[in-house]
Amino acid sequence: MKTVFVTPELCIGCRHCEVACVIEHAKSKQLFAAVAEEKRSQPRVYVETGMHYLTFPNRCRHCDPAPCMQVCPTEALVRDDATASVLVRYERCIGCAVCAMACPFGIIRFNSVHQLDTDREVNAKCDNCIERQRAGAIPACAEACKTGALTFGEAGDLIRSSRKDFTLRLIAAQETGAEAPKMPANIKAFRSIMARLAELTGEN
Amino acid sequence: MYDTSAGKKIAEARALDKNDQEIMVKSMEDGIETVWDRFADQQPQCGFGNLGVCCNRCAMGPCRTEPFGKKPTRGTCGADADLIVARNLLDDLTTGAAAHSDHGREVVEAMLATAEGRAQGYQILDEGKLNVVATEYGIKTAGRKKEEIAGELARALLEEYGTLKNKIQMTERAPQKTKDAWKKLGIMPRSVDREVVEAMHRIHMGVDADYTNILLHAMRTALSDGWGGSMMGTDCSDILFGTPTPLKAWINLATISRDKVNIVLHGHNPVLSDMIVKAAADPSLVKRAKDAGAKGINLAGMCCTGNELLMRRGIPLAGSFFDQELVIATGAVEAMVIDYQCIFPAVTQTAGCYHTKVVTTSRKAKIPGAIHKEFRPDNAYDTAKEIIGLAIDNFANRNPARVRIPDKPMQLMSGFSEEAIRKALGGTYKPLIDAIVAGKIKGAVGIVGCNNPKIKQDYGHVTLAKELIRRDILVVETGCAAIACGKAGLLVPEAADMAGPGLKSVCNALGIPPVLHMGSCVDCSRILVLAANIAKELNVGISDLPLGGAAPEWYSQKAISIGTYFVASGVYTVLGIPPKIFGSANVTNLLAAQLTGIVNASFAVEPDPLKAADLLEAEINRKRKALGI
After folding, report:
1. All domains of chain A, ordered by start, with CATH?
2. Domains of chain B: which residue ranges?
3. What is the interface pTM, i.e. ipTM, of the complex?
4. Any CB–CB contact under 8 A between A165 and chain B?
5. How far is CA B293 from the centre of its chain?
6. What is the spatial distance between Cα A192 and Cα B319, in angstroms, rounded to a whole number?
7. Which candidate from B46, B67, B455 shows the least CB-CB separation from A187?
8. A179 at the B interface (CB within 8 A)?
9. What pLDDT, in 10s, does the model give residues B49-103?
10. Which residues contact B213 (CB under 8 A, 6 or more apart)?
11. What is the assigned CATH class of domain B253-402?
12. Which regions in chain B score pLDDT beneath 70?
């Protein structure tokens, strides 16, 4: 099973993934043309601040079984077996938002889409860049991410790598001299300052 | 329906001052968007930009380097994180230095126009200071008319912006040891405009690729501001409008009048606003205001234009940078007259929700939605009268149902120019030096800078000032830092009760507050002259003195220039908001550590004002120890 895996500590809030997502889902698939399209493409991945100015790129996890699919009264949500993606058949969506209520990640957003002739707002959630995947490319958000906060691959591989990092950190913490993956000192210093600022103000 | 109790909680998190909180709640009830809302809308802000590793200079870009040790480590041109960060920092600093120095130039030009009889309503008000500065420039003063001297001095000052002389005379005010350090490092500024232009040249692709070399030029550019453009701005403003002397006045949003025509003067340059002060006393305009149903004309300053008018004229000060939208939300401002710098481009949108008219006056600073009344020395008085007339005519449009004005203005003492401080001490710094040697006063810290939505408005300034005076450290302030402490009641002699016993006794003996208001942000040059004169009396460099600097709530590029000329002059400076340099460990390390070995001062970043006070006290103790006191 391939997925877009998130490593939150590498997200620096540049929102490059959001821009790449907008372009991919625009009719023109071009930045300069996309901003002028009548039905403006909207991001389907959300980089938002939690606390201490830290960010998390939130997108559809393409769950299986998917709560959204289970509750959809019109069977607008379907699974693509080849990529295991949950897709929306826009013409069947009635905009009831029950899927959004069921979604554990809050990532469903209703917009008008260029695929429909009307301005009706439908579930325009992440489609796992199905067109790109069918053409052999990886999802636009993962491709755009420069820091590796979003990576695309076999879930098992990505989890294994993340698990190994954890193991190394644990061993290194026991002063064994093992080389653990480290956050650069300057980034740690910056984040610590921003965290203290946030604490002082009580916001963000 | 708007929830007022929720609004109060938000306001308490955003601003320290109760009056600000009260009007902030009103602004929320009125549905006004303010700087805090726009900041929230901006979240998350881009980490590449925050770390300084985003380069958007040329058309091969935009580029960025990866901050976690992966590729790309270089931009398309090959610039690494160190170079991108250093170039961005020099760019920001130069923007700030240019803003100060171009403001300074306009004051010098106004002085020249006055000297040549081309200026309407201006005069040389401080002949004493004119003669002092003219003598520094080798201009004969004895037996000459003041206009003649001022004309010759103005031309000499304008040449400081040129390239023929290759020297800025005002740097001679620095002690020998400090000047020697600059010469040794090769950072003695050659001219005001030259350093700014050369900075722009160096950050072009394919010019300076050595981050250390770029940061050295940043120091030189900053010195051309502090010991050049800003200092000329301060001195020529003093010559034209008078050198400030201690006076008492009122501060905060409660200085807006219920029954007079309110005109808020916002920005930085006193050339315009001082003329409005003069015109507002014109009996025909006062009568016109009364005929319009008002009880008179109330002028209130804002930001550094406010500081200039407060220092010299005792004009009430409505607030700082972040009060510009709140003051409009009182619903009682007939006109906000602006010159330039730190004016929110959204101010006309805020004004559009009330009857307030925004009047722009500089060709350099127009805002869509504002009325433009161009202000030049040759039409100054007529334009000032016209602007006041416009405000009076707008009084009829005030809707009393939408007015709310806080009712408790705070008193403050201002007007502490370097000359005034020296005079208060009896003409020499010896009493102050004796108090420092005896340990009654441990040292002094200049708190300067702005407001920033990343920290509660005024919390950084006020908490740091209170903590320092408690530790017997004298505080001098300019800009929005001074306004914050004024609103908090620290700028009155009675505030000495909050100081440690040593500082309290000195303040009580002299009848001065423990926190001294030294002016606007260009007036940070007054702090430099103060430090230089103390160092010269002791025959040491500025870097030997037990001094510190702090910018707890800075936002502006001008603050980067100020902080850098403080550090380059030998004053350790603590920033409360991180500059965009953390993407380069080398640049950060150079500014925060290595500089100490070069100029005996460095930068530190510490948002918590109590911890910042610890850092500043430790630095003061380090320098006291080195002096053997």
Report:
1. 2-151 (3.30.70.20), 160-201 (no CATH)
2. 82-241, 253-402, 418-627
3. 0.85
4. no
5. 37
6. 31
7. B67
8. no
9. 999 999 999 999 999 999 998 899 999 999 999 999 999 999 999 999 999 999 9
10. none
11. alpha beta
12. 1-2
